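step: validate -> pass
step: tokenize input -> pass
step: predict -> running
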Amino acid sequence: MTVLRGRQHTSLTEVAASLPDWLPELTLEAGEPFEVYAPDWAVVPAQGLQPATEEGWVSVQPRPGLLGVAVHSPRGVTELEVASGPALDELLTGRAHDLLEEDVLDGAQACVVAEALTRNLVADPWGAPGPPRCRPATAGAAGHRRSGEPDAARGRQPRDRAGVRRVGAAARDTRVRTGRDASLVGESLVRRGGGDRAAELLARRGGTLANFELSLLSLRSAEGAAGMLAAVINAVGGDLPGEPWDLEVADLARHAGLLALCPEEWPQAAEAARAADKTRTMLRAWLHQRPDDEALAWLAVDASLH
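step: predict -> pass
step: emit ->
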């Protein structure tokens, strides 16, 4: 007879304390090795990879993406999933090349292309006749660089307006409409003389999460935002290994962006930063194998804030 006992933990710290001592880091940047101290166990990675051993340590060099690793011990077999996150620019480059072959781009896809162009990761395709045929709401983001000639009336390059169009497309067309959307667009517009439009966007009503974003951006009191910040940290699982069970990848990207906005002087800042770093690295590993344009767009837009 097998007896199962469960326990409800009241904090992520309690959960972390219940994990096996030998459990290694499972979320890695591409190029970092997976290492576990297992002197008497067999460590079997998938994908035909061969582990290296030295003085009880087992090391595996994973490829970008997700890697299954089976650890055989006297207690049985433990299946681990290692996430190796490639650089954001690598993901943007590959996805933008694919999207530039499409005839129609939605808002998130246009944002991905615009970010890749802004970072000079892909060649400007509009030196050739005709940009991709985008929906009206995204045409500004995907078709903003037909010409590199200066804008004589305003003294700016057309690319200077790309930020407004890019984040405007993301704010209008993605399923998520949050405080950070409005703040991004508002900041861009204010710098370019569009104060009235910025005020309109910043005045939008949002839900609880949107209001929390605005409280982070406006540096309101840590006490007032502490409960919601803790909830966002818990939602992504803090810096614990594994994936959250009830969030889509695009929502994970949004949550990671929120955590990265936490002011350094707030008491939960270090915990928020660790959770954000883990989540973004894990997302990049997932996106390497399972593209999601909305999640990639959020990662790119958030990276431009820091």
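step: describe -> The first helix runs from residue 12 to 18.
step: cleanup -> pass
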